[in-house]
Amino acid sequence: MFSLVPASHFASAMYGTKIIDGNLNDWTISDLVTVGKDNGQAGGANLDKLYVAWDDQYLYIAIKTNNTQSWDVPTALG
């Protein structure tokens, strides 16, 4: 389950190009859309944070998890 982050945290600063490299260092609190609640499951469904940003060409979505093991299920957004 996710909870919404107050609009004051991200309403004016989500525009910007991101580097797609598996590292979230270029994502900021301004890009944070929602925060998940720990579901206590060790598998591949323990979602933590959802980030969204965009630029003139792309929509960027980053998902951070707290997974401690794999369910051997590939995850992709198309």
SSE arrangement:
Layout: E1 2-4, E2 32-36, E3 47-54, E4 59-65
Antiparallel strand pairs: 1-2, 2-3, 3-4
3D architecture notes:
This protein is mainly beta and 78 residues long. Helix content is 0%, strand content 29%. It contains no helices and four strands. Strands 1-2-3-4 form a four-stranded antiparallel β-sheet, with no helix packed on it. It starts with a strand and ends in a 13-residue tail after the last strand. The model has no long low-confidence stretch (mean pLDDT 75).
Overall morphology: elongated
- Biggest β-sheet: strands ordered side by side in the sheet: 1-2-3-4
Note the run of SSEs as H and E: EEEE
Which consecutive residue ranges, at least 5 long each, have pLDDT under 50? none
Q: How far apart are the first and last residues' alpha carbons, in Å?
A: 22 Å
Major sheet characteristics = 4 strands, antiparallel
Helical residues, percent: under 10%
Using only C-alpha atoms, the radius of gyration works out to 13 Å
SS summary, helix count: 0
Q: Give the total of beta strands.
A: 4
Assign the structural class, choosing from mainly alpha, mainly beta, alpha/beta, alpha+beta, or little secondary structure.
mainly beta
In quaternary terms, these chains amount to: single chain
Q: How confident overall, as mean pLDDT?
A: 75
Task: Offer a few descriptive terms.
about 80 residues, mainly beta, 4-stranded antiparallel sheet, 4 strands, about 0% helix
